[in-house]
Structures are given as C-alpha cells and as structure tokens.
Amino acid sequence: MACTFSFQVCTVLSSVCRKEGLTLPGELAKIISEKSGRNLRKALLMCEACRVQQYPFAVDQDIPETDWEVYLRETANAIVSQQSPQKLLEVRGRLYELLTHCIPPEIIMKGLLSELLSNCDGQLKAEVAQMAAYYEHRLQLGNKAIYHLEAFVAKFMAIYKKFMEDGLEAMMF
Fold this sequence. Notes:
- About 75% of the residues lie in helices and about 0% in strands.
- It has 8 helices and no strands.
- The N and C termini lie far apart (about 50 Å).
- It holds the Pfam family RFC_C.
- Keywords: DNA replication.
- This is Replication factor C subunit 3.
C-alpha cells in the first residue's frame, strides 16, 4: 500500500513540475515522496524548496527540511535539556509560535513525541507513548490545543526528570 501512495505522490510531483516547465528526475521524486512521509502537501513544498535551492534538479541534491520541523526538533531538545518551570514557559512560547504558523496541533504532538522518544529507553518509551496517546485524545476533544500540548510537555518533563534522577541514584549505589 505504501508503494502505491509513493507512486501516486511521484506522479503528482512529476505532473506539477511538467506544468511548471521543470524536469524532475524520477529518482528525486521518489526520494522527496519518502522524505515527506508520502504527504502530498509536504512533498510539493519540499519540491519547491529543492527548486529554489538548485535547478536543474540533481538526483543527489539535498532536500531541505521545513523550518517548522527544525524548530520542533529544537523545541524537543529544549525539553530534554532542562526540566524547570522557566523552560516550560519557554517551550509554551515555542508551541504558540508553531500554532500561529498554522502547524496542526496533531502534527506538533506527533513530531514532539517522535523527537522525545529518541531520548528515552525502553520502559520510559512505553510510558511516554501511553501518555502522548492520552493527551492526543484530549486534544481531539478540547478546543484549546495549547492546553493539551503544554500539559503533555509538563508531564513529560516530570517523568523524564524523575527518570534521570533515578538513573543517577542507581549509578551512585
């Protein structure tokens, strides 16, 4: 099924480029499709970024990440770097920034979860994933996304800080 979606995204990318008078190599279209997670809107934006970066296209050219993805990764790194009320306030501002730039809260949650899980071990991953599911469900029910995103971050900070402190104590004994 994923192969079919990838093919469809490649077909649309090639068609759009052809209508714009551009020649898109099939290999690059496939790479863009995969890097976009087979998300057509994201694939089109990535293709446009590639065009701005370099034309004619090259199969091995870099495909730039979107600014908001970089910003989201930096936000996740800030969460992991320090767990304090000041950092939570800073992260809240960053979440507002993403929301005001029309990044859907579900995408923010998914991106944060993905980045945060890369800093967790097995047992902690399960707890964080379960917690994310809870807050994502609440996000669907509520009308103020920032409350649910911030609650997820605060809960993660508490769990992560305890995990780190327990690990330090275990190393000392």
